[in-house]
Amino acid sequence: MTALVLASGSPRRYELLQLLDRPFTVVRPNIPEQRSARETPMGYVQRLAAQKAEAGARLAGDDAMVLGADTIVVCDHQVLEKPADENHFVTMMELLSGRSHQAITAIALHYQQRTRVTTALATVTFKSLTAEEIRAYWASGEPADKAGGYGIQGRAAKFVTKVEGSYLAVVGLPLYETEQLIRQAEGDANER
Ligand SMILES: Cc1cn([C@H]2C[C@H](O)[C@@H](COP(=O)(O)OP(=O)(O)OP(=O)(O)O)O2)c(=O)[nH]c1=O
Asked: Is 70 annotated as catalytic?
């Protein structure tokens, strides 16, 4: 079996990838997250996932199969990543309150000089949030390291009235798509 490497510092991705029952190691490339003016949200999240996988491959070595991923939240054409501070977080929650947004995860697999990228997404609806709920949620410490400033798998679950699409795209690693990507890459390698 080809050595699988997860190019990520995200504990969520680590825990989820374990569920594929396939041994893997971890590298942590550092890719600056900055969207260029002409980049669409979809183009941006795909580029970051590919850059993480390719930077991971430089760390892990040529023979490895390297998985990178990136998650963003998109609302009103605005891309929300991790909140910089409490004020930024409050602005994000005020935007997401009482309406629907998209959570998108791109995954990229670099193997044998080729990078394959795919995406999974969900439409998530939040109830209307009070200022007190927003403040208490920040104080919990949960939002700081999460795209869109929330964790659907954690305390933010009580804000969510509806999820349509891929739940694991929200959490950060869609496993069906990840396994498909690995199988495709292995299949292509066997044909050669
Ligand atoms: C929306 C949402 C995001 N997240 C997390 C998943 C990701 O860890 C994080 C999105 O930030 P990313 O920049 O995609 O990932 P990361 O910096 O945590 O990890 P790495 O780049 O090293 O792979 O937000 C949740 O855990 N739950 C949620 O509901």
From this structure: yes
ipTM value, please give it.
0.97
Nearest to 105 by CA among 65, 67, 138: 67
Tell me the domain boundaries of the chain: 4-191
Length of the chain: 192
13 lines ligand 1 (CB under 6 A): yes
Ligand 1 centre to CA of 14 (Å) is 11
How far out from the chain centre does Cα 70 lie?
4
* CA distances in angstroms from 42 to 45, 134, 157, listed in the order given: 5, 28, 25
How large is the angle between the packed helices 131-139 and 86-96, nearest 10 degrees? 130
Q: What single letter denotes the amino acid at residue 104?
A: I
Evaluate whether the domain defined by 4-191 bears CATH number 3.30.300.130. no
Structure confidence by residue, pLDDT tens digits, 5-16: 999 999 999 999
**Active-site residue among 63, 70, 76, 145?**
70
Task: Answer whether 51 contacts ligand 1 (Cβ < 6 A).
Answer: no
